[in-house]
Design brief:
six-stranded parallel sheet; six-stranded antiparallel β-barrel; alpha/beta
């Protein structure tokens, strides 16, 4: 468990994930292969790409460069929902990004076409050769990119199968294992999920190459924060997204293009006998009605775990200390 104040984080965020003023590249988004209106030579990577972490980025940047050199289109076919949620019937929070955020991050890597293909029992039982035939038909697929992946019913379409089929269909397979390391360990989505559950934002953000984000509409809460002088914006977050471990975090809060410092609490508010998991952000030096607006939070560092205080006065004193730590942590941001 990552407890207490960690000090300032210096994270190697790549330029394309600039947190001050992100720029979204132009990309076409469709849900089904049959919706693609232009058939042209295409390099395509197939996978979930949840989180679009540094390992994903390394593979996709290589594919984009290769596609550009060949004057081909760079495409990603990403499944939603995640195959594990369908196959294993998972119900607990799992995702590292919303689907829209995943698409935005993929577009920023220079991907031209993003297919957010539904994953259901029909797709699950589709034979590999049939799925590949559809990609060739609608995409004019020339290269298929991925790591140690497999397609189709019972994962029958492994790399050897796909390469042999490619000889017939006119495409090649580029198997790329991106061994991107962070602090001596391979970057992976499972590692990021584990670190989130421990509240280790330095680990999470280092593997992502950017701050972890949670967003949602600002909705009315119990307004307890206002009664003690620290009004909070209650976020109606996507319940399928994995949240950092319960605690107080130094965050950047984005309202459109405007960024604010914020102390954000993730938890059940035990001091007031809360029972529902909430995400509440106190925006520093800010006083405006923002109900109904979308608030995007970038989690930079964990200040402390959630705890129960003996009184509201004790809670108020701790929040004052939390706010001061947020100012110190994010002063140079």
């Amino acid at each position: 468990m990552a407890n207490g104040w960690r000090g300032k984080c210096s994270l190697p965020f790549p330029e394309q994930f600039d947190t001050i003023r992100p720029m979204i590249q132009s990309a076409t988004r469709v849900e089904h292969l049959s919706e693609i209106t232009e058939r042209k030579p295409t390099f395509v990577a197939v996978g979930s790409f949840d989180g679009v972490h540094l390992g994903h980025q390394a593979v996709l940047q290589k594919m984009v460069a290769a596609a550009q050199k060949a004057e081909a289109r760079a495409a990603v076919l990403t499944f939603f929902p995640h195959p594990k949620r369908v196959i294993q019937q998972m119900t607990e929070p799992y995702y590292l990004t919303t689907l829209d955020e995943r698409v935005r991050l993929l577009a920023k890597l220079g991907i031209d076409l993003i297919i957010t293909h539904p994953f259901n029992d029909t797709v699950r039982q589709t034979r590999a050769a049939e799925f590949v035939a559809e990609m060739c038909q609608y995409l004019d697929m020339r290269q298929l990119w991925g790591g140690n992946f497999a397609l189709g019913y019972k994962r029958e379409g492994d790399v050897a199968f796909l390469r042999k089929l490619g000889e017939e269909k006119g495409y090649t397979v580029a198997q790329v294992e991106a061994m991107v390391m962070w602090r001596g360990e391979r970057v992976s989505s499972s590692r990021i999920r584990r670190s989130l559950l421990e509240g280790d934002l330095a680990e999470v953000n280092g593997c992502l190459g950017r701050p972890y984000q949670v967003s949602g509409e600002v909705v009315e809460g119990q307004k307890m924060g206002r009664t003690i002088g620290f009004p909070t914006a209650n976020i109606d977050y996507w319940p399928e997204q994995l949240l950092p471990d319960n605690g107080v975090y130094a965050t950047y809060a984005w309202l459109g293009e405007m960024r604010h410092l914020a102390a954000t609490n993730v938890g059940v508010r035990p001091t007031v006998n809360g029972a529902t998991l909430t995400v509440e952000a106190h925006l520093l030096d800010f006083d405006a009605d923002i109900y109904g607006r979308t608030l995007r939070l970038e989690f930079i560092n964990r200040i402390r775990p959630e705890m129960k205080f003996p009184s509201l006065d004790a809670l108020k004193a701790q929040i004052q200390a939390d706010v001061q730590q947020v100012r110190e942590l994010l002063a140079d941001g």
